[in-house]
Amino acid sequence: MRREPGGGVSFVGKPVLVFGGISDSFLHASRTEDFLRDKTISDESVFKGALRALDQEVSPTDAPIYASVQYRKHLIQALFYKVVITST
What we know:
- Helix content is 45%, strand content 9%.
- It has a single domain (2-87), classed as Enolase-like, domain 1, CATH 3.30.390.
- The protein starts with a strand and ends with a helix.
- A hairpin with a 7-residue loop joins strand 3 (18-19) and strand 4.
- The protein is mainly alpha-helical.
- Strands 1-2 form a two-stranded antiparallel ribbon. Strands 3-4 form a two-stranded antiparallel ribbon.
- Helix 1 runs antiparallel to helix 2 and helix 2 runs antiparallel to helix 3.
């Protein structure tokens, strides 16, 4: 990540987004990573596009030992939001 002169934050190259505890194995959000390549995350349209990409890409395992699928999909978006807020 790189800070822009105007206060924005951009990804340099391709970011790495890996989430654990969502399915049986780690979730690597590669399509969202591709979407974010060399973009300014502090741009609202980029941020919303990344959230849409995550929503389409994430498919948690439906198993009784895990929290609900809807909760875990929301959790991924909340964690992504937290990263964006703390870096901008």
